[in-house]
Amino acid sequence: MVRDPIAFDAFGCNVPEGGIATPDRLMPNIRFERQGPRELDIVMPDGQKVAFWTFSDKLSRDPKDIWPAPPIRVRQGQIVHSTLHAQKNTHTIHHHGINSSTYNDGVGHVSFEVSGSYTYQFQPSHAGTYFYHCHKNTVLHFEMGMYGFLIVDPPTGPGRLYEGGPRYDVEAMWAFDDVDPTWRKLNHSAGLCGEDAGLNIFQPKYFMISGVPAPKTRTDPRVVINAKVGQRILIRHLNASYSILRTRIMGLDATIYAVDGRPLSHPNSPWAKPIFVRAGTEFETTAAARRDLIVVPKAPGVYPVVSEFRDWITGEIQDNGNGIAETFINVTA
Amino acid sequence: MDRREFIAYGSAAAIAAGVIKTQLEEVAEAQTPSVNLELHLEEIYEEMIDGEVLFALAYRDPVTRLVRPPLFVTEAATINLKLVNKTRKPRRFTISGTIEDRFPVVAPGATKTIRFTAPAPGSYIYHENTEGAVGRLAGLYGPLVVMPSDGKTAAGVHTPYKDPTLAQSALFDALGASARFPGERWRPELAKRTRIWMFSETDPELNQRLERNVATGWTTLKSWFKPRYFSLNGLSGFDSSHDDFTCPEGYEGEPVLIRCMNAGIATHGPHIHGNHVYCLSEVNPATLTLYKCQNILEVDTWMMKPLWRKDVLLPFIKPDEIPAAAWPPKQEPFPLFYPMHCHIEMSQTAGGGSYPQGLVTHWELLGPRRGV
Description:
Chain A is mainly beta. Chain A has 2 domains: 5-153, Cupredoxins -  blue copper proteins (Immunoglobulin-like, Sandwich); 170-332, Cupredoxins -  blue copper proteins (Immunoglobulin-like, Sandwich). Helices cover 5% and strands 43% of the residues of chain A. Chain A has helices at residues 5-12, 138-141, 318-321, and strands at residues 17-18, 30-43, 49-57, 69-75, 80-91, 94-96, 113-122, 128-133, 147-153, 170-179, 206-209, 212-213, 225-228, 233-239, 244-249, 254-259, 262-263, 275-277, 282-285, 290-295, 301-310, 324-332. In chain A, the strands form 4 sheets. In chain A, strands 10, 11, 12, 14, 16, 17, 18 and 20 form an 8-stranded mixed β-sheet that branches. A 5-stranded mixed β-sheet of chain A has the order 1-7-5-2-3, with no helix packed on it. In chain A, strand 2 and strand 3 (49-57) form a beta hairpin. By secondary structure, chain B is of the alpha+beta class. Chain B has 6 helices and 20 strands. In chain B, strands 10, 11, 13, 15, 16, 17 and 18 form a 7-stranded mixed β-sheet that branches. In chain B, strands 1, 2, 3, 5 and 7 form a 5-stranded mixed β-sheet that branches. Chain B has a 4-stranded mixed β-sheet with strand order 4-9-8-6. Chain B starts with a strand and ends in a 7-residue tail after the last strand. The interface between A and B is large, with 77 and 74 residues.
């Protein structure tokens, strides 16, 4: 096939760069500034230091970088300005699940990659669970960790999943991820211009929930849920891995009230209804999918939550059966 | 070599063109209770997105010369399918979600006509299964679309299904008749309002074994299969993102039905930007039989396991998060471009790199509602 070589290069190898002014810019109700990539190491249970890239919050007074990147939390209806400061090379932010204009969507090969700064503009219409991530050489940059949660609350604020939807007393944000340490040796633009960087082969060795490697997920307070009998627990469940994720909540029934930021119990969507997940039965998600579950424990106890990371081709549990992350919901009277 | 033919990407793009050309023809033909079709099983060469040329297999329409042509039929039609096996091995035609081995094996060089009744309205994959998934991974696959003879809701609105579920009816009735979906109904008579997205992947090692005509190792396939190319309608990356018959396009309020099918053995996680989609039909994971959704989820990411088919509706509404005060955009030009790509991102590569030259395409929002 005859292809325009300039257009072909602009598709991946030589994407337009810029730091343009936001088109059709409005006065924001809320703004965020993210800077990246910031490099940090996480010590795995086997003692290995594994490198991650994250975004820092440029408006925060706390200089400590965290991973996943700091959440962006907004309310439905606000005009949001989310500014990326590309600290090194070019990057983008795609606010995943947010349906914005092309320039504000953060996909370089249909718009531009950011060198310097760019302010993304959007106005959330649906309360729910989203995330943001770099969309340059995404196969690598997402795996390296350039993502964080994006939560859209209803206009009334936290405490209810969406207008007319379920309320909650306890909230957890679980981002499930798998990590291939061999990819850490790659340059940020590895493979972009035709070289074989091995990015079609993914063999994760570490399995994490919200930045915590298994099996520390069993005890780490960033993951473990503590609640009282009768409290309504909201679990914002994000598959940030490259695996098929199979999750079971043992001993507790759950109900999925939203998927990918869209409600399952809303008068405007009579074709959708909540999904009941009986205790101990599994539900599966693919990469980047979100599920919002409500759990209401009726008795004190320690309830395990087990997630299996399964290979996209073999369907087997990753790393010869070791690809499992477990945590707990601790319920007291 | 005389049985093989080199297929360049230009030809591959024409496959998708055939989706449209044949659809209009077959809609008329499908009114008849009996349909005569012919497919040749051939050995060919195909160019990958990075210039690598690989041996492959394909079903070919002997008249249009298209490889992996879409077959369009109407429910309950009797299909007489003539198969001409020009490859060097016995082959067996099969259809996903139906009885696996009901058709006879066609010997190399032989011709055989099989007869069957079109299954329930929906999306299917025809493929080849003498050595498990080997045939389809080498390229012996194509879409089979079964249309309803009467797919209307109680309100008389067109759907792609016979006896649509209450949920399907509620959604299709709302198109063009609600604040959520201003514009038009889904219009099956317009070719642009339906698209097929067929996913697959290629490991050159398998293709080379087939070319050398040595043992394929099909019984242990999953343990060694390492795909290096990922395709959508036989195209990848730049090509699948610039193919008129793969990329949905239209104005606000012109919904498009997308028939997603996975002919590969990798599980894919398509993610779409710009609009969420509505999942209309799925398959039973154990039997691969089709069912119409009674609970329609609105998603931006959905799962496609091997041989799964999932029809989704792309509503072509104003992207929800463009501020109302910035719609239509004044400083940003139409069309607005939005990717659909698999989020199991290894599938976005070609030859181990070259992001995003894998399983990706775009849809184009050409402008606000026509005439408004």
